[in-house]
Design brief:
The protein has a domain of 204 residues: Ribosomal Protein S5, domain 2 (2-Layer Sandwich), CATH 3.30.230. Helices cover 42% and strands 22% of the residues. It contains twelve helices and 13 strands. Strands 5-4-6-3-1-13 form a six-stranded mixed sheet, with helices on both faces. It has a four-stranded antiparallel sheet with strand order 10-11-9-12. Strand 7 and strand 8 form a beta hairpin. The longest helix is centred in the C-terminal third of the chain and has 25 residues.
Length: 387
């Protein structure tokens, strides 16, 4: 939806004659480094062109009223002077949580009318939740005449997702949505919360393909994986008290502890520690322009997520296996928390159009669904884009 169309829709709902501001908040795709963020590890995301866009205008009272074009009959309304708690509709918890964290931080907020348009598929693994949280925060800050650096804002939005959406996520999603850089992916050290940017050249294109299967990270599987990792950490801390997270454990240590850990915990730990190594190696290969080697690391990442971490599904596996057979593809893997969602592939620019057509035709013949797919450049993080 264009800003002009969103403005028209905003005035039909809220009336008045003062123009709203617009905040663009991107989704993200993680090129490699999955389920490592909450283990103090490394991730390699980029902000993408599909986004959430918010039209927002200050009110002269303490109310926050938000509507979504995805859920037109489910508005959200609450007061800044009353305790902000979770409630229905569920999508509104991303708005409530972001505002509650800013309020708790002592930011002098003002009331807001807001209309949100979303080009990100909810549950598609492209971080529509973080886009909502960071976008709402940027809108509230702008209307209040306040600013906040991207990295502290990301931490506030992570806390909002923990407390209001019930998802014990790591810090990757909110950080890349808040602090993305056009033309670059981000190697993020999730322990120090330190980003390093790596350019994505014109000689490679990122393609995202949606498996079209729905999922919810709040259904318990994500939390179970975190607890399984914590079980592994508890074992290694007995051996070495300096261990804080799986970030501090080597693949050799995990292999040596296979029997002591038991099969399930062993495989969970093996994924995390080898994924950290793959992520760091991927960063080096990408900087060197060695896309073939980077792609092989992506395939290895997917295999580990499928077999050791058990967060893939048949649709994702099929997309990755199919991508491997198509011309011009360096590498492919599932991206996001798993249990459906999307794949991300590195593709030669000249092969992108044919790749997207071929993989859609093959997938549709198998599953009877036409997968949403798009090529994307790396974009800037969330911010005001005008009135």
């Amino acid at each position: 939806m264009t800003t002009d169309a969103l403005k028209d829709a905003f005035f039909k709902i809220y009336g008045g004659d003062a123009d709203p501001i617009f905040v663009r908040s991107p989704g993200r795709v993680n090129l490699i480094g999955e389920h490592t963020d909450y283990n103090d590890g490394f991730v390699f995301p980029m902000a993408i062109e599909p986004h959430v866009i918010l039209a927002a205008r200050a009110r002269d009272d303490d109310k926050v009223i938000a509507r979504s074009t995805l859920f037109p009959d489910k508005p959200v309304q609450f007061s800044l002077t009353q305790p902000i708690t979770t409630g229905k509709p569920a999508w509104g918890n991303y708005v409530r949580g972001a505002v509650a964290m800013l309020k708790a931080k002592g930011v002098p907020l003002v009331g807001m009318d807001c209309l949100i348009a979303n080009t990100l598929p909810p549950g598609g693994g492209l971080s529509s939740s973080a886009a909502m949280e960071v976008g709402t925060s940027r809108a509230m800050l702008a209307l209040a005449g306040e600013t906040m650096d991207s990295l502290p804002l990301a931490l506030l939005c992570q806390k909002a997702e923990h407390e209001f959406a019930g998802v014990p996520c790591g810090v990757m999603d909110q950080t890349i949505v808040a602090a993305g850089k056009a033309g670059h992916a981000m190697l993020l050290d999730c322990r120090t919360h330190t980003p390093t940017y790596a350019p994505l050249g014109d000689d490679v294109t990122v393609v995202v393909v949606n498996s079209m299967a729905k999922h919810s990270l709040a259904d318990g599987e994500y939390a179970k994986r975190r607890k399984e990792c914590e079980t592994g950490v508890a074992y290694f801390q007995k051996v070495d008290p300096k261990v804080i997270a799986l970030r501090d454990v080597t693949p050799a240590q995990v292999n040596a502890a296979e029997k002591a850990l038991g099969d399930l915990t062993f495989r969970r730990c093996r994924h995390v520690v080898t994924e950290n190594e793959r992520c760091l190696a991927f960063a080096e290969k990408l900087k060197a322009g060695d896309y073939t080697a980077a792609g092989e690391l992506m395939y290895a990442s997917h295999a580990s997520l499928k077999d050791d971490y058990e967060v893939s599904v048949k649709e994702l596996d099929f997309l990755v296996d199919t991508a491997r057979t198509l011309d011009g593809v360096y590498g492919s893997r599932m991206t996001g928390g798993g249990f459906c969602g999307c794949t991300v592939s590195l593709v030669k620019p000249a092969a992108v159009e044919k790749f997207m057509a071929d993989i859609a035709n093959i997938f549709q013949a198998k599953f009877g669904k036409d997968p949403v797919r798009f090529a994307t450049k790396a974009t800037d993080g969330a911010g005001v884009i005008g009135t």
